[in-house]
Automatic annotation (TrEMBL):
Pfam families, A to Z: p450
UniProt source species: Streptomyces litmocidini
Keyword hit for Metal-binding: yes
Protein name as it appears in the record: Cytochrome P450
InterPro entries: Cyt_P450, Cyt_P450_B, Cyt_P450_CS, Cyt_P450_sf
Amino acid sequence: MVTGYDEAVAALTDPRLSSSPVGVNGLEEEMAHQERTNVLMSSMLVADGENHTRLRNLVSKAFTFRRVEALAPRVQAHTDALLDAIAKRGSADLVSEFALPLPMAVLSELIGIPAEGQPDFARLAVGLIMPPNTPERLAKGARARAELTEFFEPLIAARKADPKDDLLSALCAAQAEEKISDRELTAMAILLTLAGHETTASLIANGVHALLRHPEQFAALRDDPSLLPGAIEELLRYEGPVSRGVARFTVDAYEIGGVTVPPGEMIIIGLAAANRDPARYDRPDILDVARREVPQQLAFGHGVHFCLGAPLARAEARIAIGTLLRRFPDLRLADPDADLSRREGILRGMATLPVTFTPQA
């Protein structure tokens, strides 16, 4: 495991490390099985070099700064609608009633996912992001992939027959030009939906929870909304969605931090640890929404695999948290002493976040 900031950046940008686990020692049989049965093994998440560039280029235009700015009014509209639904009650679970449905609503419009018959993406995400280190978890992941494939395949067929103004239709057009295979198209749809949903939901919930546990930071951000862009970066650094890190695999012997790692081994890059490296950050364990002139946080990764949806995630978090603080300035934890549980999996997200506030007419 790599925990230092500089070492993490080096590992994330080194082309000698592979994103594919296919050659890992002792897992050859399992990886061969995964390549045959796991559609996500055809996604850009585990692709390298030209193959990764080809897949990424097909969707990168959907997540540019300009495209995200154009989406901002829709993000605001969805945010307002969700908060309108809880305003009169004076209490809510900000995970199930806000942090989870908001990115799903935005992604549904962007990708082209109809609300009717939509599966429970939050439930299925858990099956896909749990470490597959037990037979039960392997089976749960397989069921989740099967259910998502069954959902997307007829939707893809419908878009091929009747294209819309959405990302799924654009991918179908690329498939018609043989720029992407059928399996890669399905993998892309699943990856974009679940990655953009679960990580953003965790960013919003983690961020609000951190602010509520630090009332002085909550007050500073509430009273000075100009701090919001920097505050989102600080919340990503302080408690981002990816805690255990991302995996890379050694093709040849690889030296990092004075240690030589043999071929066929896994390196875990601890993004959360790197984001609190005292060699790079002053007072790394202190939440400070007014932090200035700090190194770029690594919550979205670094290098060619830098999170494609980072601009959209930042915009959603900025709008969601900013609107929440503006509309409910006395927002507080329903039980400040409660030990709130976390969602299962390799991501760090809240399972529930009960809050109270002054009811609004």
